[in-house]
Structures are given as structure tokens and as C-alpha cells.
Amino acid sequence: MTISIRQIHPAFAGEVSGIDITRPLGADDVAAIEAGMDRHAVLVFHDQPLTDDQQRAFTRNFGTLEQAPGGHVTKLHERRLPIDMQDASNLDQHQRPLARDDRRRMFNLGNQLWHSDSSYRAVPAKYSLLSGRIVVDKGGHTEFADMRAAYDALDDATRAEIEDLVCEHSLMFSRGVLGFDVTDGERAMFRPVRQSLVRTHPVTGRKSLFLSAHAGSIVGWPVPEGRAFLRELVEHATQPRFVYSHKWRQYDLVIWDNRQTMHRVTRFDESLVRDMRRTTVAGDAMTVSQAA
Amino acid sequence: MSISIRRLHKHFGGEVSGLDITQPLPRDVVAAIEAGMDRYAVLAFPDQPLTDEQQCAFSRNFGELEVTLIGQLSKPEERRLGDRLELGDISNLDAQNRLRARDDQKRMYALANRLWHSDASFRAIGAGYTLLHSRIVPSKGGNTEFADMRAAYDALDDATKAEIEDLVCEHSIVFSREQIGFAVQDDGNADKLRPVRHRLVVTHPVTGRKSLYLSSHIGGIVGWPVPEGRAFIRDLTEHATQPEFVYAHKWRVNELVMWDNRTVMHRARRFDDLHEVRDLRRTSIKGTGMTAAPAALQAAE
Questions:
Q1: Under the phi-then-psi rule, with left for phi > 0, alpha for psi from -120 to 50, and beta for the rest, what region is A61?
Q2: Class of domain A4-280
Q3: What is the DSSP letter of B166?
Q4: How many Å apart are CA B55 and CA B281, to the nearest integer?
């Protein structure tokens, strides 16, 4: 089987054809996909009606499944999916759309802000894989921004200024900015971690901006100055020329590299069902050592 | 008398020439400027070496001057521009004309001016015009950017226009500061920090044009869960501040720029404020009740 990849945005993102990812893959196919990820940072696979088990199996080709606790506010008995499947739907455990003021929905609204998955963990995620089981016709797109192209487009003075900056990331920041009420227990669980603002891809050596809505301050800077500057960098990095907007078809699977992209979901009519399931490939290193 | 206005941007903004605004102006000139404001929403007057007194006098042509909130919240010895509370100090200098230190609380407070906002939208009646005059400008950066909220409204699709038509937002100075992690201290000024309500879609009293009344001071939409309201306001702000609707003003010394807070948002851009001086002075004209029935909105609490 030969896979082929067609680039679908001037800067990045590719559409893959000639492969059935519901079945076990050969080592050469996996290598071809990884090479495609290094180059395009986002890959789209159409018409892949994955079961949860098949999605897990496909995901394990690229590393270990991330299933660390601490990334959500949903209690175990309220979960719709097993702990290693991240539930990116708008449904409760009875498969009904969450009520407008449901706390889980309030928390999920943070996904409308540009972010990199698990940047609030000391070891942030490598890939995320999102499978569209039930999609909506209008809105609910996933948008991706190429953090390599955004880095490349900075002027020299800015690159020099940010080269050694370190940010603090926490779910408290991304949720706090939308006015989500964080409990004391959650605050303890969401203790900030440190991440380099500029990171280098381990394979390609390309530099990129490691931005995320979870970034709430720059170490050594007054908080308001850090946040104002991070907002400016996010604005720069999410200009239309760096953004690919993915309009979902049922049974699309999209993989993205969290080390090279940010993403967000756009608004949709949440009285409709949107069932998206995510698996995450754990990263293998911290971007900077954590504070003692 | 006619004044000459050169258009600065596809949708809005004009540069006025042939006028000396340091001198008292006849009625017809004031009327011509007001007509220009209704059309362009932002007007720049280059080469106008105004004193504080002259800036206040020129501003009074357009209505009653507003007292600045930061002036009200400051102690007399903290004010660089003395007891003239209607003159806003938009500089990075302290009362002794020294550059403010990196962690200076007033600097922290002022950093929120880098977020898109409409002046005094945290008051029950927001500002009408703001007039900003440049005394000292930095060599690089420090632009003021404006976004045309009429053009942004016009560009919305019909479904969104229908959805937002009757929405009401809550505005407070606390919200804009909170977004960048700065907690505004109450210090007995709770009444000035309490959220006020404004319609999201407003209609200009003269032109009848609709525009989006957005501002970083917005902390919620009445009747909506807070996170949903804030996420939606962010979406609308992103829409409304696309390059298509934005004019970036690069300051020259002794320039006066006036804008209509009812039809534009604005923000300041970053500059090397720890090493360079930027001294601008602001006057604002009290609004005259732009939203349909502000009194009724407040009472709806």
C-alpha cells in the first residue's frame, strides 16, 4: 500500500489517501505518516470509521497513550468514555447534550481558545488524534495554526527577545480568563508548570513558538506584562496565513503535532450532537526543567 | 468654512488639514468637524502644538469633559498633570516625570490599554469622543490602532446579526484588568467598579448606522453563562479587529487624534517603555446616551 499526502494549506497540513487506518499498519506506513507529521504538522485521514479500540491501536504506532489524570474536571462516574479516550463531545454519560450551564460544558468552552494539548503538564503531549464520530454541519470546525511558520515570520529583535523566555502554563489560566469557577481542589491539581516559549523539533530541528491559552505568565516578568505580550504573540501566530480551518466530515481522523501547532474549536449549535473522541500520544521530555 | 479631510483607510479615518485648532473655532468649523466624525469616526490633526489649556478648550467644542477614572482613583501627589482631573495622563511617567519602573502598579494598570476597548464603557454612559494629543513619542512602536465597529457590524452574517440584536453586556474596569492578571483594588471605590450594562448593538444617534459596542471591559452577556458569554465576545472581537477593519496610527509629535467611542474600538501597541518616553494627554467628552435606554438597562438588575 502506498500512502500519498496532498498539502492543503500554503504553510502546512496534509490530506492522506491510500491507507486504511482501521487495520494494523506496516512499519513503513507508520514511518511515512511520521515523516508526513514532521513536515505538515497536521494530517487529515478521511473515511476512517474507527472503533475506540482501533483508534487506540492506531495511536500506539506513534508512542504511549497519555492517560495521566488531572486534565479535566469531570468526575469518574460522570465519564462517558474510558480514561484513555478524551471525550471532546458535547455529551453527558447518558449520551445527551450537556445542559447550557453544565459545569463540564463551561470547562469545555476553554477549547475555543487557541491552545496546545497538555501544555499544562510538565511533559506536554506529542500528537493528538481526533476522530469525528458524529459531526455537525455548521460550525464546530477545528482550526490549526502553524507555530513554525509563525516563528519564522517574527522579526529578528523579537526572536532574540523571546529566545530564552519560559512561561508558566496551567488550566487555571485558560479557564480563568473565561470566568470559569475553579474549586480549591482543582487549583491544587492545576498547579502551573514551566515551558520554553521557543522550542525546537527533535527530528526536523525547526524552531516554533510554544504558545497556548494555558500560558498565564512569563517567568521573571510582571504578570500583566507577560500576559499582554503573550496575547500579542498569539495574535501574530494565529493570523489567517498561518491557520488551516478543518471542516469535519463524519469519520475523519485528524492528527496534529502539539509541539508545532496550536488549535481551537469554533462555536456550533450545542443542542446538536457532536461526538469527537481524542487519543493523545504522550510526549517524552520536558521543554525546560521545572522550578524546585 | 469647509475643512479638508483626506481619507486614511478604506472604511474610516481621516486626516484634517487647513485648520489651527490651538485657536478658538467658529461654530461652522465645529459643525464641519462633527460631520467629519460622523462619517470617518477617527480624525487626525497633525502639527497642532496644543497646551493643556488649549486641548481642553478645543475639546469643549464637542461637549462636557469627562473626569478620568484613573484620576479619581489616584491620590493628588500621584498625579503628574496636577489637579486637572479632566486631563488624562497617557504617559509612562510618574509624578516626578521619571519613567515608571517595570513593576509600577500604574504601569500594570495601563498595560490593559493594549487590549481592544472603548473608553469608559465601564460607565453607565460611556464616553463620546476621546481626544488624544502627542507631546513626546517613542522612536519605535506605541502606535494607536482603531477598529471600525460599523464596518465590523455590517460584515456579520444575518444569523449573527439576529442573534446579537438584543444582547446586553456587563462592563467593568475590573474585567479588562483581570484578563491580564491585574486585580483592581477597591479602596472605597466599589461604586466605580460595579458592572454596568450596555446593548451590544448600538445605533448612532446622528447617522443611524448600527455598530458593535465591544470592549475589553466586557465580562459577560446578561442571561448567558459567563464562560459562554466571554468566549462569544472574544469571537466577535476577533471578527471586528481583523486587518480589514483596522487603521494603525503612527504618532508624530504635536498631533491630535480624536475618535468616537460609540463607533470604534482602539488599543495601544507595545513600545520600549522602560527606556523611552511616550507622553500623550487625553480628554474625553461625556456620552449622551447611546444605548437605547441605559437607565432601564441598569434598573433591570
A1: alpha
A2: alpha beta
A3: T
A4: 9
Q: Are B182 and A106 in contact (CB < 8 Å)?
A: no
Of B112, B182, B225, the CB nearest to A100: B225
State percent of chain A over pLDDT 70.
98
| Residue ranges covered by each domain of chain A | 4-280
Q: Is the pLDDT of residue A214 over 90?
A: yes
Give B269's DSSP letter. P
Could you say which of B108, B112, B235 has the minimum Cβ distance to residue A222?
B108
- Write out chain A residues lying below 8 Å of B235, CB-based: 112, 266-267
CA distance B267 to B118: 9
Per-residue pLDDT, averaged over A166-194, amounts to 93
Contacts of B173 in chain A (CB under 8 A): none
| Cα three-residue angle A212-B246-B283, rounded to 5 degrees | 105
CB A197 within 8 A of CB A166: yes
Q: Which residues of B touch A229 (CB under 8 A)?
A: 270
Chain B environment of A226 (Cβ under 8 Å): 181
pLDDT at B295 over 50: no
H-type alpha helices, B126-254: 149-154, 158-164, 173-179, 190-193, 226-240
Q: What is the pTM of this model?
A: 0.94
Name the residue in chain B with its Cα closest to that of A179: B227
Short-list B170, B247, B156, CA closest to B216:
B170
Q: Which CATH class is domain B4-299?
A: alpha beta
Question: Is A231 near chain B, with CB under 8 Å?
Answer: yes
Question: For residue B171, what is the enclosing H or E element?
Answer: strand B168-171
- How far does A225 lie from chain B, in Å, by closest CA? 7
Query: Which residues in chain A are contacts of B217 at CB distance < 8 A?
Result: none
Closest Cβ opposite residue B231 in set A109, A228, A229: A109
Q: Are A214 and A120 in contact (CB under 8 A)?
A: yes
Task: Report domain extents, chain B.
Answer: 4-299
Query: What is the torsion angle, in degrees rounded to the nearest 10, for the CA atoms of residue B81, residue B85, residue B91 and residue B93?
Result: 40
Q: How many CB pairs under 8 A join A and B?
A: 69
Q: Could you give the ipTM of this predicted complex?
A: 0.94
Cell of B249: 496610527
Q: Does A108 touch chain B (CB under 8 A)?
A: no
- Name, in order, each residue with C-beta under 8 angstroms of B122's C-beta and a sequence gap of 6 or more: B69, B171, B172, B173, B176, B195, B196, B215, B217
Q: Is A24 exposed, middle or buried (0-12, 13-18, 19+ CB in 10 A)?
A: exposed
Phi then psi for residue B220, to 5 deg, are 180, 165
Interface test with A, best of B106, B218, B228 (most A CBs within 10 A): B228
